[in-house]
Amino acid sequence: MNIFLAGIETETNTFSPIPTGMSDFDVIRLDDLKSGARQLSDIAPLSQWQKKSLDRKDNVIFGLYAWAQPAGLTTKSAYENLRDELLMALQVSEPVDVVLLSLHGAMVAEGYDDCEGDLLNSIRQLVDPNVVIAAELDLHCHLTPTMVDNADILITYKEYPHTDIAARGNELFDLAIKSSSRLCHPTMAMFDCRMMGMYPTSASAMRGFIEAMFAAEKSDGVLSVSFVHGFPFGDVPDAGGKVLVVTDNNQLLAQQLAEKLGRQIFALRHSIHFNALPLEEALQSAVSLIANAPKNNSQPVIVADQSDNSGGGAPSDSTFALRWLLDHQVKDAAIAIFYDPQVVKLAIAAGVGAELSVRLGGKMGVTSGDPLDINVAVRAIKKNYSHRFPQEEGEPMLVPIGDTVALACAGIDIVVSSERSQCLSPCIFDDLNIPSTKRQLLVVKSSQHFYGAFAPIAHEIIYMAGPGAVPPVMQKIPYQRMSTEGKFPWVDNPFQMTTPE
After folding, report:
1. Radius of gyration of the chain, Cα coordinates, nearest whole angstrom
2. What confidence tens digit (pLDDT) does each residue in 307-318 have?
3. Quick one: pLDDT at residue 377?
4. In a 3-state reduction of DSSP, which class is residue 355?
5. Is the pTM of this model over 0.85?
6. What is d(CA 234, CA 236) in angstroms, rounded to the nearest whole number?
7. Three-state secondary structure readout of 259-275
8. Residue 248 exposure: Cα atoms within 13 Å on the Cβ side
9. CA-based torsion, 374, 379, 384, 385: positive or negative
10. For position 496, what pLDDT does the model report?
């Protein structure tokens, strides 16, 4: 078979003041692969698709892969240029049997509420009707009718944190090959759950629902089940939670199962969200836990600064938590990852061992707080550092975060990078000579992706809803275009006027 691989990914926070332009995308093109300058081995799911295709002796045709850190609206020119380049690569290629796409699903550009729907529609218009179009989506996507109508198969991750990107990619590949071989005939249906929220799959209620999805996939005629959590910080009409079911040539079954599972997850709505504490309560609880921990305890308390998660489009330079730690003279703590290129530049110029005064953070807007004028010592420097995001299958994903430094201030270690990234793994501390299990308190700027790697070393994990650009409290988000009427948590049971829950 001729298999076309490509992807354009970014998650758009429509409230963010940080625009996403062409220079923000890391783009891999065919010439980069041919020259050996780049490779797909670290990029799930493309690495799995490439390997599985070659193992089958398929002909792999690579279009492009572009990825940008979550931020504000993508510029119209950036999206159109990337889209058109991908379409041109497909158009000039030999006829293809399968198109495999790695997309996010919550990319919004100037003039395009639904970039993925636009891209899928453009591809559908370009290829033969028998070509199978299949895409893997982030579960924090805006699933739209346009996306469903123009793809043969859509699958989202099941896990949050997203540790199953490779696993879901493998499933998508296998289904696409079966469909192209006419061994199955995918039909899709989605159900609007009429809810918006953030749902960690580490919680027991969500674990039970994921098991229900896996069980449903073992039923006759069911090919795939996805729960689309939705992206709370994308203010577009189609935002919100949905269930997507793919069946084998059975549209009625897809519709019935999507509704059944959709109502099942809706019934869990009060027990599956984050129980995030205000900043003062969260950090005071952490300090109390440390004070009361056994003397031989070697596991740190983890506090997740969810509101400054760059993975949701936040600047990652808010100073509220660090200021509290300094004001309360907390020692033996560490915090990561601050985004402050200027401070990184100064630290590198000064060198390891140097002491200097810096103005840290608080630069990107009112949600960042005020800058901190502090005296620091430079403990470690890593040039062109890649942060590792462990996966349940395959190698960890590598996230380039630029030059990265470790600073020490009044008993607190601070990791600062020149590119924005949320904190994904304790390796960010360990690699910068801050032993993660030898600190009593670790503050991580992340909503949930930190969980898989940090949970095994944690004495306790506390979710914190402090001030910031991406608060984990839906009612605090100033929606204008996504209607909150008839949607939980603004209405407790929007289904009660139609069908009993």
Report:
1. 23
2. 999 999 999 999
3. 98
4. strand
5. yes
6. 6
7. HHHHHHHHHCCCCCCCC
8. 14
9. negative
10. 85
